[in-house]
Request: fold
Amino acid sequence: MENIILKMIFILFFMMIPSLGYSQSYILDEIVIDCEHADECKEFNDLFQTLKGETVDAQLIREKARFALRDPQIDTLEYRLYNKEQEKTSLLIVQIQLKKRISRISYQGSSEVPFDLILPYLSLKEGGVLDESKLPEIEAIIKDKLVEKGFRGVTVTHDILGDDYFVGLKFNIAYKDVVKVGEIEIQTDYENRISDIYRSFRKFKDKVWDRVDTKVVVDRLTESFFREGFYFSRLQMDVEDIDERFVKLKIQVNLNRRYNFSFRGNRVYSRSEIIESIEKRLKNEVKMLSPNMMESFISELYMESGIYNTTADISVRSGKTQSGMRFENFYIDINEGNKIALSQVSYNGNSAI
Reply:
């Protein structure tokens, strides 16, 4: 919630009117924009100058003011309308105060703080508008990002340097400890894959624990196993405290079984195209793979190209490799259907079409 009050003050000065039933119209012939930074306020000057020469309309002036206040660089806006009785004209004075702009963003703290990596998340930029009401929220984001990257006991404050239109913004960052990865433990249903999995995580050993980076590796491994045919694998990472400064990464991988496909009779689609289509469907919360499901997948794929009545004869062989890996081999003989074309198009309507 913004704590800056945006002011719109509308004051009309009228001369004494001899009769209560007498009304007068005034022409807005002069508009003055009172802004310390004229170049920055040019667009607001252009906005209000469109009213010049028009009959005074209080509602229209308010609408212009509200529109201007949508601009995030305005801190306060105040306007006054003066009526000149003899000339039957009016003077509109608009006073605009702009928010400060950021000349430089910096931080004070340890060189271990990855401030450059956090800065893109802060919706701040040098030369941009400084909205002081959002600084507490930005401080909270800095703290959360540092906690994600293994920092504990984080405190963040800020200083605004200078009191001109352009000011510096400095964040003061302190922390108690930096948590590092002390141990990596791999558990999986196939021991011959332990070394492969460990290689993906060993770069984190004795380094600052970064939740985001480790999560990225988990997601990449999950995708890699899927591409290998382990469609229903499950990979989970838990973090266990060793002490105040070190954690253990516990990686649990259940690969389940590997699925392989052999196709015959496919002329319209290549093997890779069929597998790509199957994998897209398997990602939609499918928990198992059966011959009936495979035949349905293939039929749907061919119908997308207008080929109907496609069937598939499917046999499955299950087993284990010498290393103990379970597999299911699908042998698929595709009977491609016929492409159905429209022989006649009929319509009802205007004969001129």
